[in-house]
TrEMBL record:
MF terms (GO), sorted A to Z: RNA binding
Key words of the record: Repeat
Residue spans of the PPR repeats: 97-131, 198-232, 270-304, 407-441, 508-542, 543-577
Signal peptide residues on this chain, from the entry's feature table: none
InterPro entries noted in UniProt: E_motif, PPR_At4g14850-like_plant, PPR_rpt, TPR-like_helical_dom_sf
This protein's name: Organelle transcript processing 72
GO biological process: RNA modification
UniProt-listed PROSITE patterns: PPR
Coiled-coil boundaries: none
Gene3D superfamilies attached to this UniProt entry: Tetratricopeptide repeat domain
Length: 685
């Protein structure tokens, strides 16, 4: 035989195929053992081409393969992901046995075709074959991956009936299935009543508790595992460290204790444990400790670099220094010859977005194209956000169209990008396209569309979206309710806005703030202030937006003294005053005709070089026909914004109303000299 000859000659195994290529042209045929060894070797080396050549030779030489050889061919095609070929081969098998069915189930599981895997499992049962642990394990994996608890319980029943429930291999699969289907108590019951439990059983249950955020039970189980004399391995430590990130109070203390245990066990230089430690410290805000672990690791892979880059990016508000460190690490990844993953590029795009470095963002986009990752929807969403912030929705749309698999996050990112840049009609058009292609919008998509309806004041379309919200069951999402309140208020329907607010269970600070601002904009000053009082009674802490609404209400209602009291009380709530609040106070004085106080307030506010403040005073001067104060305010605004036409127009109106034609004419002449043009008004109505 060929294999025996190569063995006698001392030829290495790869040369078996060279001998095969030479002899196959001599029209020689081989026996089942030779073909089987060739197929097994190609499966082990993941070289499908060699296996296909052997299969072709079997067909060409009219050799009748035995069942063992056919199963090896089936296994080869299944492991290579060639499931269409594998299933055709299976269908032509005269009498497939249980090994044949198991290979096919395993192949479909590997490819994620879980419905087909379950179909093969059903066919195996119909064939009246005695199913073994591998068959049941394959079926349980389908239930685990799809979260089908009902089907999993049925298979559990079949395992018990078949008498295989005591096998540790199946017990572990069942524990994993129950954990991933969020039935960790059932998994614990099975764990405690299983006769064969090993380290995999313990680790699987620990991972289940971590997934369900049951940290106390997880720590107790870890302690029991240690007391029972089982070795804590890297998988165990990785799972437990992940749990420390979910509890800010005890997480860092528990994490440091585990770090000490890891040092004693000698796992501190393990890449998996090191990455988990780094990630834990970074997420708990201990960035310096994370950096120490990173620098102490002798061998770093791309996963560890990703964790460190992510640590710099996810530090709350990203500083320029953190973004620069992330960039430095990215350069190091390239120098080390490591291949960046989609997570690497996603983090780098986040850094560029956070610090507004759009030039570097474009360079990252070029790198993404170089590594052929532009079609990933995760990266596509980040690219759309980048170009939307740049104001280039056209480039964002190109990224959107070039992504073949578009999930709802990608659609929402593009719709939000249009709204962010004031292209509300394009956002609505894209929403229609989403609905037409059978997509299902989520609560964030609906919130963005309601915002577009609000900005366009399209009440009818907003009502239609509201109807879709009720039908699709998104009515109880807070983000949708808040957008709905805003939409109705901006469309002039304050009663519907109030009704939505009343229907909101446990309104948050955004709900209260939106309703207060809505009442203020509609001139319902007292209603807005009453809502603010109710908000305090419900112990909801107001934010900056809340006080903008309250101060605006006082301004529209002429409640100067009350408004000043609210302005002074902001520090009692720990809310920092901003330019918006100071503008509201200037408007408060201006609407009441107290122009001198308004001017003095601007000069002492610390924002005297902000044109918005002076423009608010200038508008009040026009109402009260105060040409003297108006002239000072206008000169200041013109000095700060010489190309802004609104200031010239307001000053011209003040002079014209005061019948000072020469000065009015001089304002027009100044506009001509400076090339300032007033854009004509445009109304939707």
């Amino acid at each position: 035989m060929l294999l025996e000859k190569t063995k006698l000659l001392g030829l290495p195994k790869p040369l078996i195929f060279n001998q095969f290529y030479q002899t196959r042209y001599m029209h020689l045929s081989f026996d089942s053992v030779t073909y089987t060894k060739l197929v097994q070797r190609s499966t082990k080396s993941s070289c499908l081409l060699h296996g296909k050549l052997a299969h072709a030779h079997i067909i060409k030489s009219a050799f009748k393969p035995c069942l063992f050889l056919l199963n090896n061919l089936l296994n080869m095609y299944s492991k290579a992901g060639e499931m269409d070929v594998a299933h055709r081969l299976f269908d032509k098998m005269p009498k497939p046995n249980l090994v044949s069915y198991n290979s096919l189930i395993s192949g479909y599981n590997q490819m994620g075709a879980f419905d087909k895997a379950m179909m093969v499992f059903s066919e195996a049962r119909k064939a009246c074959l005695k199913l073994d642990k591998f068959t049941y394990a394959g079926a349980l994996n389908v239930c685990t991956q799809t979260g089908d608890l009902r089907q999993g319980k049925l298979i559990h029943g079949l395992i018990v009936v078949s008498g295989l429930s005591e096998i540790g291999f199946l017990s572990n699969s069942l524990i994993d299935m129950y954990c991933k289907c969020e039935c960790v108590d059932q998994a614990r019951f099975l764990f405690e009543n299983s006769k064969e439990i090993d380290e995999i059983s313990w680790n699987t249950l620990i991972a289940g508790y971590v997934r369900m955020n049951k940290n106390e039970e997880m720590l107790k189980l870890l302690t029991s595992m240690h007391r029972n004399g089982l070795n804590l391995n890297t998988y165990t430590m990785g799972s437990v460290l992940k749990a420390c990130c979910t509890n800010m109070d005890v997480g860092i203390m528990c994490g440091k204790m585990l770090h000490g245990c890891i040092m004693k066990l000698g796992f501190d230089i393990d890449i998996v444990v090191g990455t988990a430690l780094l990630d834990m410290y970074a997420k708990m805000g201990e960035l310096h400790s994370a950096i120490k672990i990173f620098t102490s690791m002798p061998n770093r892979n791309i996963v560890m670099y990703n964790a460190m880059i992510s640590g710099f990016i996810e530090t709350g508000s990203i500083s320029k220094e953190c973004a620069n460190e992330a960039c430095r690490l990215f350069f190091e990844v390239q120098r080390q010859g490591l291949k960046p993953s989609k997570f690497t590029f996603s983090s780098m795009l986040k850094a560029c977005i956070a610090v507004g470095d759009f030039v570097y963002g474009k360079q990252i986009h070029a790198q993404i194209c170089k590594y052929n990752l532009q079609s990933d929807e995760f990266i596509g969403s980040a690219l759309i956000e980048l170009y939307s912030l740049m104001g280039s929705t056209e480039d964002g749309l190109k990224c959107f169209r070039s992504t073949p698999t578009r999930d709802i996050v990608l659609w929402t990112s593009m719709i939000a990008g249009y709204i962010q840049n004031g292209k509300f009609e394009s956002a609505l058009s894209l929403f229609y396209e989403l609905m037409a292609c059978g997509g299902r919008p989520d609560e964030f998509t609906i919130s963005n569309i309601l915002s577009a309806c609000a900005d366009l004041a399209i009440a009818r379309l907003g009502e239609q979206v509201h109807g879709h919200v009720v039908k699709s069951g998104f009515g109880n999402f807070r983000i949708v309710q808040n957008s709905q309140i805003c939409m109705y208020a901006k469309c002039g329907d304050i009663d519907s806005a109030n009704l939505t607010f009343q229907e909101t269970e446990n309104p948050d600070v955004v709900s209260w703030s939106v309703m207060i601002c809505s009442c203020a904009q509609h001139g319902c000053a007292r209603d807005a202030l009453n809502l603010f009082g109710l908000m305090k009674e419900h112990e909801i802490k107001p934010n900056q937006i809340t006080f903008v609404g309250v101060l605006s209400a006082c301004s529209y209602g002429g409640l100067v003294e009350e408004g000043l009291k609210y302005f002074e009380s902001m520090k009692d709530y720990g809310v920092e005053t901003s330019i918006e609040h100071y503008c509201c106070v200037v408007d408060l004085f201006g609407r009441a005709g107290r122009l001198a106080e308004a001017e003095n307030f601007i000069l002492t506010s610390g924002f005297k070089n902000n044109p918005i403040m002076w423009r608010a005073l200038l508008s009040a001067c026009k109402v009260y026909k105060d040409a003297v104060t108006g002239n000072r305010a206008a000169m200041k605004v013109i000095e700060l914004e010489p190309q802004e036409s609104a200031s010239y127009v307001l000053l011209h109106s003040i002079y014209a109303d005061a019948a000072v034609e020469p000065l009015a004419a001089s304002v027009r002449e100044l506009m001509l000299q400076r090339g300032v043009k007033k854009e004509p008004g445009l109304s939707w109505i």
